[in-house]
Amino acid sequence: MRIALAGAGVVGSYLGNMLQRRGYDVEIFEASKKENHWPVCAWGASRHMLEKFSKQAGLDFDDYVFHVGKMLRMELPDDKEEYLELRGLVSYNKHEWENALLKDIKVTYGAKVTKEAFPFEKYDYVIDCTGLHRTLLPKSKDDFLIPAYEYLLENVHGIDEFYVIGYKGAKGYFWYFPLDKERGYMGAGDVEKKYYGVSEFFKQHPEARVVKKVGRPIRLAPPKRMEPFYDGNIIGVGESIGCVFPMLGEGIIPSLICCDLFLEVLDRSRDKFDFKQYRKKVLERFDYYDDVYRVVRLKMDGKLSTVRHVNLLMSMYRHMKKEEKRFGFEVSFEKMTRMVNAL
Ligand SMILES: Cc1cc2nc3c(=O)[nH]c(=O)nc-3n(C[C@H](O)[C@H](O)[C@H](O)COP(=O)(O)OP(=O)(O)OC[C@H]3O[C@@H](n4cnc5c(N)ncnc54)[C@H](O)[C@@H]3O)c2cc1C
Asked: Sheet of 209-215: strands edge to edge?
């Protein structure tokens, strides 16, 4: 069976690797040139989950870990602060991790796939792994993106922990994620494009040297709002169908979970991929992301009430608590309530 994947990001590299291992004839088409190909992302995720995905794909995740977090400091409006105990949140070498997964796969770089020109008839299935772009699937009227950009910095002194600033009204957040050897990612996502904290960071750290400035928006609309997941022989996996945790704009682990759902369905399908089963599984697995998305949007619109929306908040808390290990930080009801109120 021939499978083409459009995009060599998290999904393209991991799913391509897993499909080739299963004996499928895999080909990946990536828009950026090989020398420019760079995963735009702050490279932070749960070690526990990445160990599992790495093992499945034949990699040892320890080879890619940069920084193991202990505590996350969160600055909140009105000089409030919150500290979260970290339970597995790490930064890792995402560039090398993806390259290692792609090592033995046929990848054509500099090949921007379009719906009009792609030879769909040559493949049994074409996977849309173009993330934010969702190039091959119809657009969704319920889509919602948050603009974001970041700097890869070196020579940063005095910060060796994950650090975040939550913006008033939950309109976005600033981050500093330490990597290795005084390097780190500093950036922000902000619906209002004010990116508070970025210029202050440079003033506080005049020694910091910019290695790269990269950016793209992040999709916050969850799968429930990103249908269809398939169209003809095209199937969406990852951020292209909304697999991003809406409260944090965190998409590495959700996209990888989506890959595993795809593989599970493919393994069980007989002659033809069971599209309906895939849709069902994705909607079930990411069902509560819609509650989280509603909390975020209500807060952004200044309409969130901890009394009227108690069910939404409880759903968010219960699900996150159940998946604490997958997030890599402590999930505490008291802290969550304090943060929601402070924003
Ligand atoms: C600034 C920023 C920081 C982030 N930080 C984090 C973080 O720390 N932790 C976290 O979990 N998530 C983070 N995210 C989100 C996370 O990076 C994404 O959700 C995740 O990478 C999605 O994986 P994907 O494979 O679906 O898409 P991507 O990893 O975005 O890959 C899509 C690929 O498709 C290619 N492509 C696009 N269009 C075409 C086309 N027409 N033809 C061929 N190729 C194409 C792109 O060049 C890209 O290589 C961040 C996002 C941004 C923007």
From this structure: 80-85, 71-76, 162-166, 172-178, 184-190, 148-154, 209-215
Q: How far is the CA of 113 from the CAs of 245, 277, 340, in angstroms? A: 27, 27, 41
Q: Which two tokens stand for residue 227?
A: 């249908």
Any atom of ligand 1 within 6 Å of the Cβ of 49: no
Predicted structure pTM score: 0.97
Give distance in angstroms: CA of 7 to centre of ligand 1: 9
Tell whether ligand 1 has an atom less than 6 A from the beta carbon of residue 242. no
Residue-range domain boundaries for the chain: 2-342
Asked if 156 and 182 count as a contact pair (C-beta separation under 8 A), the reply is: yes
Q: Which of 92, 173, 235, 252 to mutate to test the pocket of ligand 1 (most atoms within 8 A of CB)?
A: 252
Q: How many helices (H) and strands (E) does the chain have?
A: 10, 18
Residue 1 tokens read as 């069976």
Tell me yes or no: is domain 2-342 CATH 3.50.50.60.
yes
The number of the ligand 1 atom at minimal distance from the alpha carbon of 10 is 25
For residue 217, which of 185, 195, 197, 236 has the smallest C-alpha distance? 195
d(CA 263, CA 18): 8
The secondary structure element, H or E, covering residue 45 is: strand 44-46
For residue 132, how far is its CA from the centre of ligand 1 (angstroms)? Answer: 7
pLDDT in tens, 131-187: 999 999 999 999 999 999 999 999 999 998 999 999 999 999 999 999 999 999 999
Other Cβ atoms closer than 10 A to 302: 8
> Which of 218, 229, 262, 326 has the most ligand 1 atoms within 8 A of CB, as the residue to mutate?
218
Question: Ligand 1 centroid to 251 CA: how many Å?
Answer: 8
